[in-house]
Sequence to fold (579 residues):
Amino acid sequence: MNTTEIASSEWRGRAEELKAEGWWLADLCGLDRMQLGFDDRFGVVVQLLHRERKERQTIHISAPGEPPTLTSVTSVWPGANFFEREAYDMFGIVFEGHPNLDRILMSDEWEGHPLRKDYGVGKVPVDWIEQPVLQIGAPGQAPNADDAQVRLDRLGQPILPEGIE
Amino acid sequence: MAVTQDRIVEKLEAGGQGAYVEFYDETEERMVINMGPVHPSTHGVLRLLLELDGETVMKCLPIIGYLHTGMEKECEDQTWRAAVSIVTRMDYLACFFNEQVYSLAVEALLGIEVPPRGKYIRTLMTEMNRLSSHLVWFGTQGLDMGAISAMFYGFREREVITDFYEMVSGLRMNNQYFLPGGVWEDLPDGWEKAARAITSLLPVRLREYEELLSENPVFLERTKGIGVITKEEVLALGATGPIARATGVDWDLRRDMPYDAYPDVTFAVPLATEGDVYARYRVRMAEMRESVKILDQLIDQMPSGDFKNMDPKITHPPREELNSSMEAVIHHFKLSTQGYTVPVGEAYAAVESPRGELGAYAVSDGGTSPYRLHVREPSFVNLQSLAAMAEGGLVADLIASIASVDPVMGGVDR
Fold:
């Protein structure tokens, strides 16, 4: 694979040059590089395709800061719109200059960014706005919210540690 | 327009995307309504926020995510081999393509080759899948245009093809038949006869369909010059597949960047230049006829030999060896319990699915499960072009445009 790395400050300018050379944006996705040994934890991976040369190339751009921030390329390739929204939704990467940076797959009230590595599968209770009432205890006994918590713990349901979204 | 767009966004921000935004602007005589998410012609749970001036669509905002199940995240908890069972469920009308693109990406990471027979079987199944997927599109396109019988006919022929899937893989949908290194099982006895039956039946049926719709005045009225998108818009918005080819973008990954058995077969890439719903209809119908030609060549040229890479470190040993070989038992146990490790690296593979460029980007940290798997779903990207097709047209034409984009919500939302 033909892979290059571009600094986040140069990305927007480089994107315009690449577009002028005839590269077409095939894919853009976020990447949490927590366990991969990069300086910046979050990055964006871009796949480009050159139709005349029949070539592909991959570009890594790190998104520094908290929240991770990067310049949007929707004005260069309008097709990046959904991709960038997905990267924002899943990783919390903020794209500056995006016309409508909103959650795209998760619901608006969702907290956290699911594809981050510290967001565990099955470890985080699905927290909807309205709490479901758990049917526990003996038949006929009114369910109690405190009992529900105890019961869940006894069942070995991992409890959400402090500080994890 | 922009003012009202802001107003929609403002209302959405106040109530969230789940808010039921609907209002009527008396000064501009504009109405904002929701189409979907459970509208019968949105092919799943697609919600479109429409701003209407009478019957004319002024603004079209697709709102997606109703079918999101976090498949990319789930893959990170599976072994490399087991993740096939998740990716196959993404675009549920083109299951084999999902499996193929994932397998190609993992093979690139592993640096392994697929034996010729494995490549041919994969190509055979994906071309069958292209037919069955386009037949569903044919049915829904007809249905949305009021030709209900198109749905019956499309599904009748799809049934024959899903029977073939069942014969080969044991399942009619979500087959889990491909795996990194080849396919799970060899083709069963009698596959050739069953495949020939399909390739001899389809051309006859396709001719019937053409007679049914291609010259039908009602169908022409509803599709010609409707939902027009230009070549420049297609390239800018990233749309691929029949949508792009209907505007004259001469690009097909099967021909231009061939994978699996495509270097060995000859076929034409159907093109059109009008970019309207009818052009997309013509392109897809021609694609089906080309698929039949490819299938005939694949059946003729099917090589013998292994159907998967036989490296014992990544493939289960043959069942009979378990009785006689300790090595085979160890490999079987290791693969079944922890799976195989994949060298550190990243790979992007792309195939031409019925809806366009389907890509898989896989990252390995050297472990037994994917560190990150991202799937570039063509439906997800193509949906962005819907606004360009719909804006300025009538609501009834929007229905035709949705059908001609052929989005599969399982793929859009993943």
The CA atoms of residues 130 and 354 of chain B lie 6 Å apart. The mean pLDDT of chain B is 87. The longest strand of chain B covers residues 345-353.
